[in-house]
Amino acid sequence: MTHRLVVLGAGYAGLAAAHRAARRLRGADVRITLVNATDRFVERVRLHQLAAGQTLRDLPLRKWVAGAGIDLVVARVTAVDAEARTVRLDAAPHSLSYDTLVYALGSGADDNRVPGVAEHAFTAADADGATRLRAHLATVRSGGVVAVAGGGLTGIEVAAEVAESRPGLRVELYTDGRVGGWLSDRAQQHIRRAFDRLDVRVHEGVRITEVGDRALLLDDGRDREVDALVWSAGFRVPDLAGAAGLAVDGRGRMVVDGTLRSVSHPEVYGVGDAAAALTPAGAESRMSCQVGLPAGLYVADAIASVLSGQQPKPIRVRYFWQNVSLGRRDGVTQFTRADDSPVDRVVTGRTSARFKELITRGTVMTMGNPGPYLPQRRQPTLVGA
Length: 385
Known about the structure:
Layout: E1 3-8, H1 12-24, E2 30-36, H2 47-51, H3 61-65, E3 70-74, E4 77-81, E5 86-89, E6 95-97, E7 100-103, E8 108-109, H4 117-120, H5 127-137, E9 145-149, H6 153-165, E10 170-175, H7 185-198, E11 201-204, E12 208-212, E13 215-218, E14 223-225, E15 228-231, E16 235-236, H8 240-243, E17 254-255, E18 268-270, E19 275-276, H9 289-307, E20 321-325, E21 331-336, E22 342-348, H10 349-368
Parallel strand pairs: 1-2, 1-7, 2-3, 7-18, 9-10, 9-15, 10-11, 17-19
Antiparallel strand pairs: 4-5, 5-6, 8-16, 12-13, 13-14, 20-21, 21-22
Helix pairs in contact: 1-9, 1-10, 6-7
Protein name: NADH dehydrogenase, FAD-containing subunit
GO molecular function, one term: NAD(P)H dehydrogenase (quinone) activity
Family: Belongs to the NADH dehydrogenase family.
């Protein structure tokens, strides 16, 4: 009987998992189906560029999966029935049954935390949001105020990109902590110098309590008129896993074991932002393509091992660096320990910008060519199919 492997989500983790599984299970009686809401791969690490008015590469998924042994279904997932082992979709074929499921639906902007954000703010967490922001920024006249909420990676990159591409706008960044506070002092200092150069005004230790139509209410009682607010203060994951009865943590992320299998439903694997994988130190893995891509490759290998009657070794989540864009000609590359804590070594300026561009382009190449791997000495014999 054909084993049905369904992968939900064609982001960095899901697409890598589907392609790697197709290679590892070639010749086995396995049907691989990849489900995604759109027919394009989105370079999420470039969405700040799209929002600022730049044109991104067109990356059609059908071209990537053609001849790879992967069936592509373009539809939005509306529900997972973990007991019946089916996935419901908003378009044909409307329902898919699975024997093994890879849950890689990613994350989106957390726009429910503060009143008015969902109604009045823009986001750059997905292609649709970045496109809407781009269209709105094109209508803002010189001297208009663009506020960015959040001092994390997305907020920093959006603020710098908009300020560089639209120097006539007044860009302001609001954060209740420190801008880039997770980075080393050297990295934070470079970001501050870049913001000074780009004339980005930073408001630290300030919390936005409510958002209105072209207005912000701050926790000190002040009102601030703006022409656009970009909300980048946190992410949230879809509630599909929890609604299906899968074990999730307090943020709705699927709880997985060391091989990325659901602790409550072992036929389901979780990768990327939607899963709470742990580092060797016991901390939650960071939401990033730096984790999603290798997790996708790993989970395909793990599934191939299980279907061959073998026990995969636990994944080891470790970090090397973090890249922060500061426009097209500047950036910060923060080198880290394996647990993601920063060391004092950083690379800045054009060298960092070029390095990130090299990594980003290499990541896209890996999506469609997820080797090398150690082939099985024999064709996989499916266990429990």
